[in-house]
Amino acid sequence: MEYTEAAMSTVDFTLATADADGVKMRLEVVEIPVSDVARAKEFYLRLGWRLDDNTPPGITQFTPPGSACSVQLDVEHTSATPGSSKAFLIVTDAAAARESLVADGVTVSELFHLSEAGVAPGPHPEQRSYVTLATFSDPDGNVWVLQQVTARLPGRLAGGPTSFGSVADLADALRRASVAHGEHEKRTGIADPDWPEFYASHVVQEQTGP
Asked: Exposure winner among 34, 143, 166, 180, fewest CB in 10 A?
């Protein structure tokens, strides 16, 4: 199984927009080929994904927590082979996300990361974005990749409503932005005079997606 940063940063279950001749395009639903909808439904309910109730009759649709993109479990309307899907779930803490899934009874790989020498065990030693991963599969073998992202690639911010339930929540978001900014300065090797913009973008991106 090959992983590249380009692939990992283009297919994720968060809001995506594109501009084609002035027309905005939003990735909001992806089909997941399964052989048994009832069995798959039970699995995704166990993950804590929201079962949407406003879909057309006969459609079983789930939305991962915090995602603007949903998945539809499909048997009849796709020619794709059950188990042939692979998609990325973007998280800010891959270790915590893995622990949560394991607690729900899901079999998840150990964390691994991408290095110049290839795939290496454990998280990236410098906690770089996009390269720390873990994988798990649904009952049909469709693969989900947990990808840790704390600092986005340039141009990924789309904006959107951002709110916090308490001062503590905002403080936590700023702490995460501080960590991500430290990683950013390590990569560039220079002090960043535009740190307020970096902090603001990071806080918004956590809530609105890439």
From this structure: 166
pTM exceeds 0.85, yes or no: no
Angle in degrees, CA 50, 111, 91, rounded to 5: 35
Place of tokens 């974005």: 129
DSSP state of 139: T
Phi-psi region at 22: left, alpha or beta (left = phi > 0; alpha = psi -120 to 50) = left
Q: Give CA–CA dist 100/208, Å, rounded.
A: 22
Q: Running along the chain, 210 residues long, what does each successive block of 10 average in pLDDT? A: 39 41 78 94 95 82 88 87 94 92 96 92 89 97 93 58 74 86 81 81 69
CA dist 138 and 140 (Å) reads 5
Instruction: Determine the straight-line distance between the first and last CA of the chain, rounded to whole angstroms.
Output: 25
Residue in this structure with the two tokens 């899907």, named with its chain if needed = 85
Distances (CA, A) of 127 to 83, 97, 132, 195: 31, 15, 7, 19
* Model pLDDT for residues 8-48, shown as the tens digit of each residue: 333 333 334 445 456 778 888 999 999 999 999 999 999 99
Within 8 A by CB and 6+ apart from 56, the residues are none
CB of 82 closer than 8 Å to CB of 94: no
**Taking a C-beta distance cutoff of 8 angstroms, is the pair 146, 97 a contact?**
yes
What pLDDT score does 75 carry? 82
Residues 128 and 157: their CA atoms lie apart, in Å, by: 19
Burial of 78: CB neighbours in 10 Å, binned 0-12, 13-18, 19+: middle
